[in-house]
Design brief:
heterodimer, A: alpha+beta, 3-stranded antiparallel β-sheet, 1 helix, B: 265 residues, 7 helices, 29% helix, disordered C terminus
């Protein structure tokens, strides 16, 4: 679990990347929608969620959860 | 996925944890936009989580544990969170509107743990006043059942929160109007069903006005110092020593004898 980011930090970073990618000249983005696999770790307290580190799952990795997030222009 | 800890936790705590993280993400985006002097153009609208978890139903509570590597048959929780608009937030905020005099539930001190306080806040009990109101209506059992808090512990915390406290005593001199000088006593829980019994050095003192957080007293000329005792109910009292003799108006000093026991604490 060490080294995992909190879900809030992960979401903010993904949003940052998505906004940057959407900032194309001549194009106005109004909505960004993503579905991502996430590894969730929670033993009470802050919720840690992180994108899987590798494409291939091993016997040591649990089944990933899935997150669908929608950002909309304000 | 974490599979180290096999303890399950209440589902509602998980939902709270997600809500907190969504707030944090939104705040982080807003802070960044402000620091870079950019308008915040995007906000999280919806988020759906398909969480693989082990589920238990114990003592009326749904408890979960995110699935570990060996949990191949874990259940799938489909959780959908949707952003609400400002009017909706304000509409809900009205229900939680708190008077500035309301004491936060944190003031219940050691009687309740942080966990207990979180549970109470989760059911909308954020102030001591709200808890007292619920208790008066017999709702403490319901709160106890919903939050899994022992009713006895809730009642003990309430008893402590309902104890009277004298914070300070100040003179109110109305010399210009010719009204007699008064003493203003500030505190909390100073009155219950009727006016409290107020004594100064073992002698009764006149109560002109009383409320839970303030008393107006009309002291006799010799009652400007001593130990004040406020008893809002039998066997429930708060005391404070004070000495306001330097503030005694000249007329009162001439008309009566000024004496006091002095301040001992």
């Amino acid at each position: 679990m060490t080294g995992r980011r909190s879900m809030g930090a992960m979401l903010a970073e993904i949003a940052d990347g998505a906004m940057a990618a959407a900032a194309t000249p001549g194009l106005r983005t109004t909505r960004i929608e993503m579905t991502l696999p996430v590894d969730i770790a929670w033993i009470g307290g802050p919720l840690f969620a992180e994108l899987p580190k590798s494409v291939t799952r091993t016997a040591f990795d649990g089944p990933p959860s899935r997150m669908h997030v929608v950002w909309e222009a304000m | 996925m974490s599979g180290v800890n096999n303890a399950t936790l209440p589902l509602e705590h998980f939902i709270q944890a997600v809500q907190t993280q969504l707030d944090n993400a939104q705040t982080a985006m807003a802070v960044k936009a402000r620091n870079l002097n950019l308008p915040l153009t995007f906000a999280i609208k919806d988020i759906t989580l398909d969480l693989r978890a082990q589920v238990e139903f114990t003592a009326g509570e749904i408890r979960i544990r995110p699935a570990g590597a060996t949990d191949t048959q874990a259940s799938l929780f489909h959780l959908v969170f949707t952003a609400i608009t400002r009017p909706m937030i304000e509409e809900n905020a009205i229900a939680f509107a708190e008077s500035p005099q309301d004491r936060p539930i944190d003031e219940l001190g050691d009687e309740l743990t942080d966990e207990d306080r979180r549970k109470l806040e989760w059911v909308g009990v954020r102030t001591v006043g709200k808890l007292q109101e619920l208790s008066a209506q017999g709702g403490d059992r319901t709160v106890g059942r919903v939050t899994s808090l022992p009713v006895d512990r809730l009642r003990r915390a309430l008893e402590r929160a309902s104890a009277p406290l004298v914070e300070h005593v100040v003179p109110v001199l109305n010399g210009a109007n010719g009204d007699p000088p008064l003493l203003r006593v500030r505190g909390r829980n100073l009155m219950r069903a009727g006016p409290p019994r107020v004594m100064l050095g073992g002698e009764p003192i006149a109560v002109v006005k009383a409320s839970a957080d303030e008393l107006m007293l009309a002291p006799a000329p010799h009652q400007w110092a001593g130990e004040l005792s406020v008893e809002p109910a039998p066997m429930v009292a708060a005391a404070m020593a004070f000495d306001l003799r330097p503030f005694v108006p000249a007329a009162a000093a001439v008309n009566g004898t000024i004496s006091g026991t002095g301040v001992t604490s």
